[in-house]
Amino acid sequence: KPEEFLCLASSAAKDFTSALGKKDVPKVGVVGEIYVKYNDFAHKNVVKWLVSQGVEPVLPAITNFFISFFANTEARIKDNIHDRKTPKFVLDFAERYIFEIIRKMEDAISQFPDIMPIESPHKEAKKASRIINTNSQFGEGWGIAGEFARFAEEGINNVVSLQPFGCIANQIVSKGIEKRTKELYPDLNMLFLDFDNGMSDVNIYNRLHFIIG
What we know:
With 213 residues, the protein is of the alpha/beta class. It has helices spanning 2-19, 34-38, 46-52, 63-78, 88-108, 121-128, 142-153, 168-176, 178-184, 201-212; strands at residues 27-32, 56-58, 158-164, 189-195.
């Protein structure tokens, strides 16, 4: 039941909060392709390695990937790429309903000090539009630019981009927007890691040392 789940989430937030120490730890944002970003096997345990080094890895909520649909739809209609097939009031209602659920969850865990609320996809798209056209929607598309921007605005100035080798939606977009992102956020340090069969663990962790050092 939803009520039971929210109760358990609130209890978990209390336990995590009480377990936190007072020591501030450096944070590193993690962006990239959805599978590589969230799967330990795919990214060779990079996230766990950051934790072992006394660093807090900050991963955006996976929900962002799915709710970007609402911003994607409006961007394509605005630029005359697609006609409107679903009435706007229907999409607006669906978006409001989804965010009611999201906000209930966030309220349940609000006492946890490091919670990063889920932003409106339109707000994130607006940030991303300063870097890349929001009709770049293949794969994670403009979402990577939006995550770079949000991390910089949250004061997380070290960000690792994890991507499969040769993946246009990530490897090409991430590196392609590096210059523009640095122009807007000069304090942002970005590390791009490609993952394929030939990528050695030593190469990965040696490069990570530069961003946490």
